[in-house]
Amino acid sequence: MSAATIPAYARPVWRRVLLSREAAVIALVAVVYLYGYSNIPYFGDTLTLTYILIDMTTILLIALPMTLVIVTGEIDLSIASVVGLSSAVLGLLVRDGVAMPLAVLIALVVGVVCGLFNGFLVAYVGLPSLAVTIGTLALFRGVAVGLLGTEAVTDFPTSWTEQTSRIIGSTGIPTFMLVFAALAAVFIALLHFSPFGRGIYDIGLSTEAAEFSGVNVQRTKLILFVLTGTVAALAGIFYTLRFGSARGDNATGLELQVIAAVLLGGVSIFGGKGKLPGVIAGVLLIGVISSALRLEGVTVNVINIIIGLLLVLSVLSTSFLTWISDSVSRTKRSTSSH
């Protein structure tokens, strides 16, 4: 009798790494970038690389915890409102003369509180995350707009706003990407190399099975929503300093871009599947395509249509490949039974 194997690990390591959704997205980023480098004027300049990375930093940051949330089968639509609320709080405090370090810390605490609120309602009250975060999307945005009204606070210290555009030497890479790289390393280790991360996948595959295997489902979900709120607040601080303007309506609609990037990177909206390297590549793919099309004179509306079609195709391709895999498996079982 042959030993039982888990299908995903029955294949050689090189096939699991190279023949994966994540590898395909990474390869597509490289292809698009090299094509633009060779065929589009100014696309290969370090200045273009700088703007691509700066433009995508906010999405890159929020996509890290959002990936973990979606892997559990949940979702957080309030992230853009948390960005706006943290921006409004930061602007309000700076306007009233609070020192920047303290104002930044308080803005981060606001993100923690928002995450706790979402996480408590989802994990402990048992409400659907879609319904909860649609509600808090409106709630947090309303509070943010109420704090500043139509006012925009712009008098931030130059020493802070300049940090968002500083470059590492002549590489074209913004120094703030070091912060992202550190956070990415932490989240990758958390999701892919820790018992906590295995519990996240277990929850996404089956909440009941995860509970029976010893995973504290409620605590795990609460932690993930707190992480999402905290990182969204950090993204709000970056967003505010980058544009030098704090407004309650900052980052409106950003949640759709984040979710699109996460799904494009190979995370299943139904939970249980997905890897962070693929998500990071998905964000960069959107940034590279958008930048290349802008340099070619394509309008924003057309760019959005192209990105939307790419997302739909990526979701359809996952379902199509799953159908093929299931069909092959059924054929093999049918053949072996005869």
Characterise this structure.
GO terms for molecular function: transmembrane transporter activity. This is Autoinducer 2 import system permease protein LsrD. Keywords: Cell inner membrane, Cell membrane, Membrane, Transmembrane, Transmembrane helix, Transport. It is a multi-pass membrane protein. InterPro entries: ABC_transp_permease. With 338 residues, this protein is an all-alpha fold. The chain has a domain at 58-252 and 268-275. Helix 4 (79-95) packs across helix 11. The protein has helices at 13-18, 21-39, 46-71, 79-95, 100-124, 129-148, 158-161, 176-192, 195-205, 207-212, 217-243, 254-264, 276-295, 300-337. It contains 14 helices and no strands. Mean pLDDT is 87; it is low at 1-7. The protein is globular.
Short description:
The chain is mainly alpha-helical and 338 residues long. Helix content is 73%, strand content 0%. The chain has 14 helices and no strands.
The SSE string, one letter per element, is HHHHHHHHHHHHHH
Helix content: over 70%
Question: Mean pLDDT, as a whole number?
Answer: 87
Rounded to an integer, what's the Rg over CA atoms? 21 Å
Structural descriptors:
338 residues, mainly alpha, 14 helices, disordered N terminus, globular
